[in-house]
Design brief:
By secondary structure, the chain is mainly alpha-helical. Helices cover 53% and strands 10% of the residues. Strand 1 (67-74) and strand 2 (80-85) form a beta hairpin.
Length: 215
């Protein structure tokens, strides 16, 4: 059949075949290009989703990290550990613990104080701090009194004659006897040993024992 065609017809036939081949190639190329683009867009979408999930997870972690734990005790309805947003104040912690009891004393509590993680808040009772202060003052007074009394004692194992003479009832001669006894017999083993000194009997010992020490 091809042989029966004229030269002109043959050329036209070849041109048609070439054109059809071009159309087929273009179609195949367009299909493959579209397929590759779909894969690319799918990968981009997956990456975008993954990044969004990662950002959301990080955001949640930041939210968790921005929380603080505070221990609330004393005159609150629930003595417990409460979770609060960072930057919360003592007033927020009290509310999170159920609020105050009727005997709570907020006189010395700064409700606007900004809390940090791990802190403990104690709400005292009315009159509790005064009672504690009285006890503390009494203890301080007793301690100071004992310290002063202890400080005023004379160490008979180390004191000079002048220092020994400051003991009530001890004169220069008795002070010298104490020093001589110490040099001859060594240090006093007990306060009562001072009664071995001539001139210091039971009566004088009772008067001076509160003013002497061997330490």
């Amino acid at each position: 059949m091809f042989e029966n065609l004229t030269k002109k017809q043959k050329i036209i036939f070849i041109i048609i075949i070439i054109f059809m081949l071009i159309v087929i190639i273009f179609y195949l190329y367009s299909t493959l290009y579209k397929y590759d683009n779909n894969i690319l867009y799918t990968e981009i979408d997956n990456n975008f989703i993954t990044e969004n999930i990662s950002e959301e997870t990080n955001s949640n972690n930041l939210i968790k990290n921005s929380e603080i734990l505070v221990h609330v005790s004393g005159c609150v309805k629930n003595n417990t550990v409460v979770s609060l947003p960072e930057g919360s104040r003592i007033n927020d912690a009290i509310e999170a613990a159920g609020g105050l009891t009727s005997d709570a004393d907020l006189t010395n509590i700064n409700l606007a104080y900004i809390l940090e993680d791990g802190e403990k808040i104690y709400i005292p009772k009315k009159g509790e701090e005064e009672s504690q202060n009285s006890t503390v003052n009494s203890e301080i007074s007793n301690t100071n009194s004992s310290s002063l009394k202890e400080f005023s004692k004379i160490n008979i194992n180390k004191a000079t004659q002048t220092e020994l003479e400051t003991i009530p009832g001890i004169g220069p001669s008795t002070a010298l006897k104490i020093i001589n006894y110490r040099e001859e017999n060594g240090k006093f083993k007990s306060i009562e040993e001072i009664k071995n000194i001539s001139g210091i009997g039971d009566a004088k010992y009772e008067n001076i024992k509160e003013y002497v020490t061997i330490k």
